[in-house]
Fold this protein.
Amino acid sequence: MAEKQLQLEVVTPDRKVVSTTADIVVCPGVEGQFGVLVGHVPFLSALDIGEMYYREGGKTEYLAVSGGFAEVTGTKITIVAEAAEFGREIDVERARRARERAEARLAAAKTEQIDWARAEAALRRSMVRMKVAAR
Amino acid sequence: MATLRDLRRKIAAVKKTQQITKAMNMVAAAKLRGAQTRMENFRPYAESFANMLGNLSRGIEPEIHPFFQRAPVVEKVGLVLMTADRGLCGSFNVNLINAAVKFMREKDAAGTGVSLTCVGRKGRDFFRRRKYELTNSYVDVWNKFDYTNAQVVAREAMSEFLTGQVQEVYLIHAEFINVAIQKPKLVKLLPISPEETTEEAEGGAALEYIFEPPVEQFLEFLLPKYVNTLMYHGFLENSASEHAARMTAMDNASNNCKEMITQLTLVMNKARQAAITKELMDIVGGAEALKG
């Protein structure tokens, strides 16, 4: 195990969420979940709204991410996302309210395309938040 | 000649003004600290983004995405002007508006139309008073804004560009140089020039990335976010500049109040002394008269 560890950085417009090393990082890519180990080929992927996790020395940490992408070079993975939170930081009550709002909007805006897409994204964000918070 | 009572009143009034300006100065200072922290926190994100786009845009043909494409003829350009919502911040708003007016004159001289969007009440009011047609305006955003506000403004600008209503999009915002200096800055948002994005990227050989989804779709996903990032950067700089400008203006105002109070007190003391002397003379005169 002379191999170097993978460096992980998660940044959002408001803060640098994580800057650490990890054994493995698993991200929700738009074309399916993918895992990254050290020595991965250079890789760029858009990320879906979803949960990502990383393992470091047997400890696993979960984050909810949305609106981002991942850049992988051999030794480093950078997640650049519009929002990223640890499960413990998530306000479950707020996520639940957001889900209810989104559901109401979905029901109301069945006809309009853009509204529909936005409400759906909001719904998925809130559901991912709740899922990650429950970990 | 002002009477003693008038002077006392005037001093009390100036003192009250000073209290207000001092309070505003402190509020602006606190808000400036907050705005600066936000700028600090945003930096890693912006840098990661610029780095990545720099790595990426080497070896990319402009035809790959409309955001890279330069129109052969520019008939109309979009301009997003950021100002503050409130005044009492020195020449902050005026400088920004002047920069916009200058830009529009230049475009006008070249026969190019301008579609203007104002973020901030002061800019909107200025152009509205002059009966200038605004494409869009956003007011009351500065008190509390986050990334989503920038997204909304950027989305409108991008859709104008994509639907062909404008061929270029610019942004004017205040650049925060330090607490004493803020300058209007003109930024070209669209089309994105790959050369401009690469300058911040680290040197070294370009990496051959695997894309997921394929590069066209990936850019489709990424480039709007890049414009959002530029827009949010403008928001942050403008907000920090506004608070810095207000802080400086209110500091000056407080100092002027102090000076005014000193001078008025001097005048008041003279007037009081004159009144006392006059009274004394009256008394002495009266006593002399009685004696005689």
User: Anything to note?
Assistant: Residues 4-24+252-291 of chain B form a domain with the Helix Hairpins fold (CATH 1.10.287.80).
